[in-house]
Specification:
The structure is a single chain. By secondary structure, the chain is mainly beta. The chain has a domain of 104 residues. Helix content is 9%, strand content 42%. The protein contains one helix and 14 strands. The strands form two sheets. A twelve-stranded antiparallel beta sheet has the order 1-2-5-6-7-8-9-10-11-12-13-14, with no helix packed on it. It has a two-stranded antiparallel sheet with strand order 3-4. It is elongated and about 120 Å long. The chain starts with 6 loop residues before the first helix and ends with a strand.
């Protein structure tokens, strides 16, 4: 005799599978998620634009802390320290600002109009006591008749812990080319010029030392 499959047993199996499936759907929200290492990493979302027109861009780190600001003159904030913006000595500048891991400003680049000069500068700040540290700059008059370009190094201001103070330190080294007159000026800790080295537009070289009152006390070749 040929054996026949018991229809009751088959029905039991189908019911068991159905019950397991229903319980699996019910328990799924309560089951632990797989470890991050076991999950396939999702690629970060990216968007490509041919042109992006904005007044300001804020760049933040993964924790949401501000790290870079790019803005026009109307949207560039004041100097940022301890989460507060303080007025700037130049209020029509457009450019970008660097921020440290605490969100405090640590330098930047900007272009601005200063009286009758078009000006651009790039600055890196000291942070323990906010002070301009290194500055590169250039200036041109409106009529183009006068121009200057330079590189300056400053002493850091003494630490006071007070926010909102001037960021202007003592200039110790100034390297500049002004209307074809090139000069290196080294100052003492009070900002008084003490050594001057230069070559003017006529090709005449100069090496001179000055006393604290600015009087020349030595000139090479004399």
């Amino acid at each position: 005799m040929g054996s026949s499959r018991n229809p009751l047993t088959l029905t039991h199996w189908l019911l068991a599978i159905l019950v397991l499936g229903v319980w699996g759907l019910f328990l799924r929200p309560y089951l632990p998620l797989p470890l991050p290492e076991a999950r396939a990493a999702s690629p970060p979302a990216s968007v490509t634009f041919d042109t992006l027109t904005v007044q300001r861009i804020n760049v933040v780190d993964p924790n949401g802390k501000m790290r870079l600001i790019i803005a026009n003159s109307a949207r560039l904030p004041g100097a940022i320290k301890n989460g507060k913006a303080y007025p700037r000595s130049i209020n029509n500048a457009a450019g970008f600002l660097f921020m440290d891991t605490k969100g405090d400003e640590t330098g930047g680049a900007a272009t601005a109009k200063l009286r009758d000069n078009d000006t651009a500068g790039f600055i890196f700040d000291y942070m323990y006591q906010p002070t301009d540290g290194i500055r590169m700059w250039r200036q041109e008059s409106d009529d183009g008749a006068r121009w200057r370009a330079g590189f300056d190094i400053y002493d850091r201001r003494p630490y006071t812990g007070a926010a909102g103070e001037s960021s202007q330190g003592v200039q110790r080294i100034a390297l500049a080319d002004e209307n074809q007159n090139a000069e290196l000026l080294i100052s003492d800790a009070q900002g008084r010029p003490r050594i001057r080295i230069g070559v003017d537009k006529g090709g005449t070289p100069t090496i001179a030392m000055l006393n604290p009152e600015g009087k020349e006390i030595y000139r090479a070749g004399q």
